[in-house]
Amino acid sequence: MINNTSKYSKIIKAEAKRLGFLSCGISKAEFLEAEAPRLETWLNKNMNGEMRYMENHFDKRLDPTLLVEGSKSVVSLLLNYFPSETQTDDSYKLSKYAYGNDYHHVIKNKLKSLLYFIQEEIGEVGGRAFVDSAPVLDKAWAAKSGLGWIGKHSNLLTQQVGSFYFIAELIIDLELEYDYATTDHCGTCTKCIDACPTEAITEPYVVDGSKCISYFTIELKENIPTEFKGQFNDWMFGCDICQDVCPWNRFSKPHKEPLFNPHPELLDMSKKDWEEITEDTFKKVFQKSAVKRTKFSGLERNIEFLKP
């Protein structure tokens, strides 16, 4: 049995690499004991703002065996999205992860291929693929399986590649060889905390989601509170400030996923272009993008809020 778990783990990791994933780590599917009080406190302080869905499925969020019956292993995967080029300086800004095609679709297809491969190579293995859309604590699982540590900005960090990557999981009913968590390498650095214009990082490792620029520009459906006027540093969809200032991100290397390449018009659009954007242009540029989530009206609201 021991031989098989080791062998299976190796072939799964090799196939993940072949599919273009940055790295793959495996943990035992079990209750996340350390995360439970942390999540409870965060929710009790209303740091989820209008993201009420964070309150749902509390038990499933902490225990994958309740989410996928008979599950034994959580296979965590990272996929790089760091772009080779960024927007022009005179522009309202989009988070880098939203430059190309919607990552949910891109990653889901890779995960399905990986699960199919496991079933072909190993036999009858049941499981489900997750990409940021179900009650799974992605960062906690990735950290538990040794893919990085959770930084003071609450993003997963890796020494060799920084933090510009997506996290996804396969939760499967197959016993595997498990990896170990890595150590924290944030040290005394507080660059992310100091740089956040809305002071959303209330203390190291704690982000008040209801104060985050990403929350205001994507999740919040009502008007953005006026007290935050002038604090968004031109971010109109998402925000990368805490990642951009992180010293570990100087090791970020451009991704090799063609589907994450931006629409040809996107990088050259100026503030004036954004202010004059029509619904037709929006549909054309963001046809397959995650930006569709905020809708044309949401993007318009954000741009209006950014104007002096």
TrEMBL record:
Residues 174-206 form the 4Fe-4S ferredoxin-type domain. InterPro entries: 4Fe4S_Fe-S-bd, 4Fe4S_Fe_S_CS, QueG, QueG_DUF1730. Cob(II)alamin binds at residues 61, 132, 156, 167, 214, 239-240. GO terms for cellular component: cytoplasm. GO terms for molecular function: 4 iron, 4 sulfur cluster binding; cobalamin binding; epoxyqueuosine reductase activity; metal ion binding. It is found in: Cytoplasm. One of its GO terms (biological process) is tRNA queuosine(34) biosynthetic process. The keyword Transmembrane does not apply. Pathway: tRNA modification; tRNA-queuosine biosynthesis. SUPFAM superfamilies: alpha-helical ferredoxin. It comes from the Bacteria. Pfam families: Fer4_16, QueG_DUF1730. PANTHER family: EPOXYQUEUOSINE REDUCTASE (PTHR30002:SF4). Catalyzes the conversion of epoxyqueuosine (oQ) to queuosine (Q), which is a hypermodified base found in the wobble positions of tRNA(Asp), tRNA(Asn), tRNA(His) and tRNA(Tyr). Belongs to the QueG family. This is Epoxyqueuosine reductase. It comes from Winogradskyella eximia. The gene is queG.
